[in-house]
Amino acid sequence: MPVFFSKHLSFLRGGPSLALLSTLTLGLTFLNAAPLPAELFNSPVDKLPVAERVSLRKGEAIVTGDKGIYTGRILVATTPEVVWAVLTDYASFPRILPNVVSSQVLSTEGNRKVIEQVDVRPFLLVNVRSRVRTTVTETDKNRIDFRLVEGDLQKLQGYWEIQPISPYAGAAANQVLITQVVEAQPSAGIPKDIFYGIFKNTLGKNLNALRQEMLRRSPSSSMNEALPKKSS
User: Fold this and answer.
1) Which of 11, 85, 201, 213 is most buried when burial is the number of CB atoms within 10 A of its CB?
2) Where are the domains of the chain?
């Protein structure tokens, strides 16, 4: 057999040709394989609708719901300890929250407290003063349940929830998602539609006011910049 054909025949029988064939086969396998699904960071914020995520990351409060049943959220660059300290500082609510003129702890028993709060809000061109007394149950520094005992509302109940948020999977938390779920119904004689509008608007203002106070108390120097005072 001529040397030329002998050399090429040996190439086809083994050696480099097998490596080349293996490489081509492996490449075709990768091309035909189903793509691996992308793994999303599944934090409580990532589970929310896109529009809500965008608003929260801009530092905006969001309130959803209607007819007296609402969910409010705010995302704050602080620690869970600071959030808890602000939410349970009931005596300071008149300084922190718009429209609150009085707030005091009437009794404490374990993790339960009775709080009396007085608000003044504009209603039909006049300022209306309302008083509510609620029982508050504080759990594990991450949840606060509240329920109306007596006062100028027919119904008031709900809870606060505190959830640390990490920038990505495996990272330390650098923000806190604060959620308030609340149901409120007016007393007899108060137009429900007007009450619902005022109450929902107040929830958003309160969340923004709480955020300002939490940033003011946060340890980071960048969070201690001058912030606007509460407005009525």
Assistant:
1) 213
2) 3-32, 50-99+140-224
